[in-house]
Every structure is written in structure tokens, then in C-alpha cells.
From TrEMBL, chain A:
Top-rank taxon, per record: Bacteria
One Pfam family this sequence matches: HTH_18
Lineage: Bacteria, Pseudomonadati, Bacteroidota, Flavobacteriia, Flavobacteriales
Keyword set, alphabetical order: DNA-binding, Transcription, Transcription regulation
GO terms, molecular function: DNA-binding transcription factor activity; sequence-specific DNA binding
The keyword Nucleus appears for this protein: no
HTH araC/xylS-type domain segment(s): 75-175
Protein name: AraC family transcriptional regulator
Entry-linked InterPro entries: Homeodomain-like_sf, HTH_AraC, HTH_AraC-typ_CS
Gene3D superfamilies assigned to the protein according to its UniProt record, in alphabetical order: Homeodomain-like
TrEMBL record, chain B:
PROSITE patterns, A to Z: RESPONSE_REGULATORY
Domain of life, source organism: Bacteria
Record PTM 4-aspartylphosphate, positions in chain: 61
GO biological process, one term: phosphorelay signal transduction system
Residue ranges of domain Response regulatory in the record: 7-128
Protein name: Response regulator
Organism listed in the record: Confluentibacter flavum
Length: 187, 148
């Protein structure tokens, strides 16, 4: 006996995708052929697991391989800035390519393509964000912060802060303090 | 994963400024949707009506008839519904007093209106890019202050 079958590939793919997405508890909408819209924020970790699961069906997430790597670059940088245990004698570029196993040129191009900014700018942004936190929450002065974040001098940190935010660290501190006072008055 | 475009609103009573503003965004790499309003009353009516898609960044001119930028800022800061909007003051004034006052009142960005189109484009691109970083990286928006 022989069976003759007719396939609707589009429908099959949709069904597989839908089942897998449900299995991974990812809120989604299948937009069209080869495109899924995620309706919630999905961590890089979860996406990677989902992506691995799909390889059994020879389904590959095209765009998101890039996003995952970019997210890894960001995570590595954030960790590097906020976690003082990371080796400080290494340059950021060397540290990134060592940790992620790609050349710095590749990482750098990919990063700019996806995020509209460069790795260098992202590192500075993170450092300045950390500086803001330290000023406000831990009441550290700029000298202490410059030391903690491995700046060659206080002046360098101060200039970078001003260049990134347009205001000086002391103006920043003054504004946030006043803002808090204003808030506590109105509440 | 994220929205593909950024929603922008400008409230400004000067027609030329509104036009330059929209044109500048048209030429940027990042895709934006720009909406403009002539004054603070129209703006707040729009923002307060049900079903409105709130902007990612709102640009406020300080001197507008009927309702000024400062009044809009104050109103918005009282309503939790607006807490995710980055508020940019877009003004001809560059007095330190104005700048600090608006920051203290809760503005995130202060832009002195540039005199030429090229600078305007550069400035707006910087605002959108940095705001995008805050938005996509979960940075603490309470600490988001930018002066251009």
C-alpha cells in the first residue's frame, strides 16, 4: 500500500513554531512567513535555549544570532564596568574578544550595526552611569570614583562626564538633590 | 524585539521650528514617527486622551501661548502615566537658571535650539541615540540628564 501526501509547508512551519514558542512560554505573534514578533522582553538566555531547540527542526533564527551576540557584548561590558574583579590590566578590546571568541573588529562592526552606537561609546556611557550611581547612592567623591573605575586622573573622568551629559558632576549632584527635596515636599 | 521606530512629539508654537524639526528627523538613520502640536493645551489634550500611544521622547518649547512648556512638564510629572517618557526642553534660552530649574522639575534633556539645520540634525540624533541606550539597556532613567 502506498500513501500519497500533500503538504502545506507554511502551515507546518507555523504549527511547529507556535508549539515551540508555547513550550518556552514566550508570548508572541507569528507575523508572516519567517517572522515572529515577541510580545514581551525575552532574556538572551531564554532566546538562546529557544534557538537551540529549533535547530532540531533545521529552523535557524537569522537576525537574532546577531542580537544575542550584541547582548553578550553589552553584558560583558556592564560586568566589566560594574564588577571590579575583572582584570584591569587588560584593554577592553582584548578582554571582549578573549571572552566572546570573536575578533574585536567583527564585534565592533556588529555592535555599531545593531545598536546605533559604538562599543567605545557604550563603555563610556556605562562608566558614566556607574559614576552617577556612586555619586548619588554611595556619596563617593570624584577622586574615589576615578580610582575605582581606573581613570588615569580625576580631570579625565570629570571631562568625560561633562562631554557625555553636558553637565558637570557637581551640577548633576546638585540637581538630583534638589529634585529629591522637591519631591519630598510635594508628597 | 523592540519597536522598530521611535515615537517623537514636539510642542512648539513656531511653525518654522516645527518644520525644521520634522525634516531633521526624516534624515536620520533611526526610524522615527514625529507628531507636532502648536501649544501646550493641544499637547496635553492629546496625551491625556484615552488610547493615545505615548511618545518615547517629548520635546517641549518653554514659551508657548495658552500653556507653557513648564506647565506641561509640571502636569506630566504629577501623573504616573507619563513616567516613561523622556522629556526634552527645547528652548531658545540658555540661561543656567532655566536649565537647572527644568532639570530639577524633572526634565531629562535640555536643548538650546541650534541656529542651523546641520547642528539641529546632529543634536537630535544624539538625543535619540542616547535615549535609545537608556530604553534598550534598562538604565536608570532617574539619572538621565543631558544638556546639549
Amino acid at each position: 500500500m502506498k500513501l500519497h501526501l500533500k503538504f502545506d509547508f507554511n502551515a507546518i512551519c507555523r504549527k511547529v513554531l507556535n508549539e515551540k514558542l508555547l513550550e518556552h512560554n514566550i508570548k508572541h505573534k507569528i507575523v508572516g512567513f519567517g517572522e515572529v514578533k515577541l510580545l514581551e522582553k525575552v532574556s538572551a538566555d531564554r532566546l538562546e535555549r529557544f534557538s537551540n531547540d529549533l535547530t532540531a527542526y533545521s529552523i535557524e533564527i537569522v537576525e537574532n544570532q546577531k542580537s544575542i551576540l550584541v547582548q553578550k557584548i553589552k553584558d560583558t561590558i556592564t560586568d566589566m564596568v560594574f564588577n571590579n574583579d575583572t582584570p584591569t590590566n587588560l584593554k577592553a578590546s582584548a578582554y571582549l574578544s578573549d571572552t566572546l571568541g570573536h575578533s574585536y573588529g567583527y564585534l565592533s562592526n556588529l555592535f555599531s550595526e545593531v545598536t546605533y552606537t559604538s562599543i567605545e561609546n557604550f563603555i563610556i556611557l556605562q562608566k558614566i552611569e556607574y559614576t552617577k550611581q556612586l555619586i548619588i547612592n554611595e556619596n563617593l567623591n570624584l577622586t574615589e570614583i576615578a580610582f575605582k573605575l581606573n581613570y588615569s586622573s580625576v580631570a579625565h573622568l570629570s571631562t568625560q562626564f561633562k562631554n557625555t551629559t553636558g553637565i558637570t558632576p557637581s551640577a548633576f549632584q546638585r540637581i538630583i538633590t534638589k529634585r529629591r527635596e522637591l519631591k519630598s515636599q510635594t508628597n | 524585539m523592540h519597536e522598530d521606530y521611535i515615537n517623537i512629539i514636539l510642542a512648539d508654537d513656531d511653525e518654522d521650528d516645527r518644520l525644521f524639526f520634522s525634516d531633521a528627523f526624516d534624515e536620520l538613520k533611526i526610524t522615527t514617527r514625529v507628531k507636532t502640536f502648536n501649544d501646550g493645551v493641544y499637547l496635553m489634550d492629546y496625551l491625556n486622551s484615552e488610547g493615545t500611544v505615548l511618545p518615547n521622547v517629548l520635546f517641549l518649547d518653554l514659551n508657548m501661548p495658552r500653556k507653557s512648556g513648564l506647565e506641561c512638564l509640571q502636569e506630566m510629572k504629577k501623573n504616573d502615566k507619563f513616567k516613561d517618557i523622556a522629556i526634552a526642553i527645547y528652548s531658545t534660552s540658555a540661561s543656567e537658571e532655566d536649565i537647572e530649574k527644568t532639570f530639577v522639575m524633572g526634565a531629562n534633556i535640555y536643548i538650546k535650539k541650534p541656529n542651523d539645520f546641520k547642528t539641529l540634525k546632529k543634536v537630535l540624533e544624539e538625543v535619540v541615540t542616547i535615549n535609545w541606550q537608556y530604553y534598550t539597556n534598562g538604565l536608570n532613567k532617574d539619572n538621565f540628564l543631558l544638556r546639549l
